[in-house]
Design goal:
about 45% strand, 4-stranded antiparallel sheet, globular, mainly beta, Neuraminidase, single chain, 5-stranded antiparallel sheet, disordered N terminus
């Protein structure tokens, strides 16, 4: 298989707001009556944009946070403060506080070093703070600020080994509900009624639906409890609890293929708003007020290509094999040419477009993805459907360390395979695999 990879890079500039790094899931919060969105930047810092009632601010980095974050953040408003939590580089729970006039220096919650294996989820109940995360045994861990000191961490009974994603916690009525994606891709839940935990239990109809951590929100428009997630087709999936039953999981119209990471939902003053990171590295928003307004990208948040194309050619040498009568001969081998365009920002690489030429008329193509950032496991199509399959991959986002294996097969021909490794902050590396 003769393969040419056209590798187009997009590395954002370091400081400009228009090209600020959008590298992870994000956290949306209502603060002082307006939404703010915070995320982990490609420099490991905490970045923020805010809505002032008429326009979005430029992206700014919280002072003293560069290199501090090892996960997406979780933001919560309490009294006049905005408190933001994240997993630190030592696996501990860290926080920084905006007191209304300045950011306080980040500090680690005592006793949490090495205990987090996911992003945290924070919620405020009165003057108390509760923060949840996936622990080292895959269980749901919790730490509580009781107004004077931190208590915990403690694990919710029966949750060890249950979490396959970061959790999302919600205070609803007298209860605390915590959701996460389970090992079967379903939505799991535990509830605290003020004295004891119940669950975990799976939300009906959700196995195989969630391709990201969930985001739970109290929907005051429909008087329901809503949970959103990235669906397997890259759309915004969700289900709602109306007080007596869960709705059938569905997808918000017009969002298929739009999400590159987990969403973050918040109840605003008059609308329910959901934010996420798109395949172009920008921040997207959809608002609900008895109807969805339609997804739109926040201006100035998309990354822009700055690196010229780089071509990599992998020639295929002839391979000798015994002929019909034992004499030396040549095996018939598939010979296909690929052109793949990429853009990337540190840990994340977006597949802009992929084309294939020379797939045999009776052949087929498959693409397998292995790694924690993979948006699919294995996709395959016969020759006539290969263009459709390749078009469906446009905009998919991969993480550093992910590995693609592209194989072209045809009857009575030697299958050829190419392996593409996604790397941190540089062009993906491709090599031809022996049959």
């Amino acid at each position: 298989m003769a393969i040419v990879l056209l590798l187009v890079g997009a590395v954002p500039s370091a400081a400009g707001a228009a090209n600020a790094p959008y590298d992870s899931s994000l956290s949306a919060v209502q603060y002082n009556g307006e939404p703010s969105v915070l995320w982990q930047g490609s420099d490991g810092g905490l970045w923020q944009i805010s809505w002032d009632g008429s326009s979005w601010s430029a992206a700014v980095e919280v002072p003293g946070t560069a290199g501090a974050l090892a996960s997406a953040p979780s933001a919560v408003a309490i009294s006049s403060d905005l408190e933001v939590f994240w997993r630190g580089t030592d696996g501990g729970l860290y926080a920084s506080i905006w007191d209304g006039s300045a950011w306080l220096a980040p500090a680690e919650v005592p006793g949490t070093a090495g205990s987090l294996t996911s992003a945290p989820s924070a919620l405020a109940i009165g003057s108390d703070l509760e923060v949840y995360w996936r622990g080292t045994d895959g269980g749901l861990e919790e730490a509580v600020w009781d107004g004077s000191a931190w208590v915990g961490p403690d694990e919710a009974p029966g949750t060890a080994g249950s979490l396959a994603s970061a959790p999302s916690a919600l205070h609803s009525g007298q209860d605390v509900n915590v959701f996460w994606a389970g090992s079967d891709g379903g939505l799991d839940e535990v509830s605290w009624n003020g004295s004891a935990w119940s669950g975990p239990a799976e939300v009906p109809g959700t196995p195989g639906m969630a391709a990201s951590a969930p985001s739970a929100v109290a929907d005051t428009i429909d008087s329901s409890l809503d949970v959103y997630w990235r669906a397997t087709d890259g759309g915004l999936g969700g289900s709602e609890w109306n007080g007596s039953a869960w709705s059938t999981p569905g997808e918000v119209p017009g969002t298929s293929g739009k999400l590159a990471a987990a969403p973050s939902a918040m109840q605003g003053t008059s609308t329910l708003d959901v934010f996420w990171r798109g395949g172009d590295g920008g921040i997207w928003e959809n608002s609900y007020d008895k109807a969805w307004a339609g997804p739109a990208e926040i201006p100035g948040t998309a990354t822009a290509p700055t690196v010229p194309p780089v071509s990599v050619s992998l020639p295929v040498p002839p391979v000798s094999s015994p002929g019909n009568h034992g004499s030396p001969g040549k095996e018939r081998r598939v010979r296909t040419m690929f052109k793949i365009s990429w853009s990337w920002s540190r840990a994340h690489t977006r597949l802009v477009a992929i084309q294939a030429r020379g797939v045999p008329s009776d052949g087929s193509l498959s693409i397998t993805c292995v790694g924690r950032g993979c948006p699919w496991d294995k996709l395959a199509a016969p020759r006539r459907l290969v263009p459709r399959l390749l078009r469906s991959l446009a905009g998919r986002v991969l993480r550093a360390g992910d590995r693609l294996t592209i194989a072209v097969r045809a009857p009575n021909m030697v299958t050829e395979r190419i392996e593409v490794r996604i790397r941190y902050g540089v062009v993906p590396k491709a090599r031809l695999l022996r049959a």
